[in-house]
Amino acid sequence: MDTTPLESKGVGGETARAFDEFMEAFEAFKEDNNARLAEIEQRGAADVVREEKIARIEATLDTLSRKAQRPQLGPALAPVSDLAHKSAFDAYVRKGEAARLVKLEEKALSIGSGQDGGYLVPAETEATVNRLLKAISPIRSIAGIRTVSGSIYKRPFATTGADSGWVAETAARPQTNTPVLAELQFPTMELYAMPAASGALLDDAIVNIDEWLAEEVRIAFADQEGKAFVTGDGVNKPKGFLTYTTVANSAWTWGNLGYIATGVAGALPATNAGDKLLDLIYAAKAPYRANAHFVMNRSTQAAIRKMKDGQGNYLWQPANAPGEMPSLMGYGVVECEDMPDIAANSLSIAFGDFSRGYLVVDRAGIRVLRDPFSAKPYVLFYTTKRVGGGVQDFDAIKLMKFSVS
Q1: How far apart are CA 247 and CA 402, in angstroms?
Q2: Domain 116-160+178-405 maps to which CATH number in 2.170.120, 3.10.350, 3.30.565, 3.90.1690?
Q3: 146 and 387 in contact (C-beta within 8 Å)?
Q4: Where are the alpha helices (DSSP H) in 109-195?
Q5: Number of Cβ atoms within 10 Å of the Cβ of 341
Q6: pLDDT tier at 256 (50, 70, 90 boundaries)?
Q7: Each residue's pLDDT tens digit, 69-126
Q8: Which residue ranges make up each domain of the chain?
Q9: DSSP code of residue 192
Q10: Can you tell me whether residue 250 is helix, strand or coil?
Q11: What is the spatial distance between Cα 319 and Cα 303, in angstroms, rounded to a whole number?
């Protein structure tokens, strides 16, 4: 009787066996490579036999990686190529060994190689960084996000919809007018962080280097891109939505952002201030209000929190559960410290559907360049990603201007 577990049979079993073979080879590689490094430190050179053994193990790892490129006929536990990249990246970060990463990127014809410098982090690490960024970057958390392979993303947008209408079943179809298209361009700019690690941290085998790197760079990346998405001038950084031309919403045209004036310079009206918030909400068309949010900093939010309706109920309401956001007049409030404080002529509150209004463009690939020389005894990791951003629908975001008109 065949007692082989079901998960070990068929394609899934082949994947599991390939995974086991790879891990066995990788463990052997680590053991012999650590011994080789110790020999180099003690005698200045490694044993020739050990060098040959390591070369054979690397060839085995290379063979397993090539097998992973074959089409899968069923569900896989984990791509062996991803595991190969992960192990090679781990060796590079801990010891500075780049040979295996070079081979992997040459075979993959890496879209991120070339002038960027450094080596691509594993796909799992990149996904972790982007997930952490979305969790703590205010605008990214509500904006539309597009991942591209090139340095610039171009998007045509119809500023006027194509003509349409009703017609009888057998009647002639009149020719429709050609829609007016505008091309929006979103170039990606280089964003960098440079975390430092001690030798003891890198030598500690229990430390997950991928998680450590993702945690170190997320704060720096989120801080820089958060500012750019709001007030960036578009020069070597994304263009923030507050840097576009603004006009009174009654005179709104494509290419501008519409605003509602409070009627008071640097303040809301002393009476019926909530009416201005209603004006801002209904400045956005119904399709944009369905997924709309308020965006303001904590100072502005503190002022809004004190406002009540005619029955004495606060307009601002706290979150109902952990992980949720507070609400204002039924719409979520995103706290963004890069929004300006309330002042004369300030644009301190934004409202709208940011998933349709603002686009964040990520170029695929996060790269790391190891630098053990500039800050001895620490090792620096020059980490870069390319990010762009800008308004993609000028009718989806409305602003409140604290001015007379």
Answers
A1: 13
A2: 3.90.1690
A3: no
A4: 123-136, 138-142
A5: 14
A6: very high
A7: 555 444 444 455 677 788 888 889 998 888 888 887 776 655 444 444 688 898 888 9
A8: 6-109, 116-160+178-405
A9: E
A10: helix
A11: 18
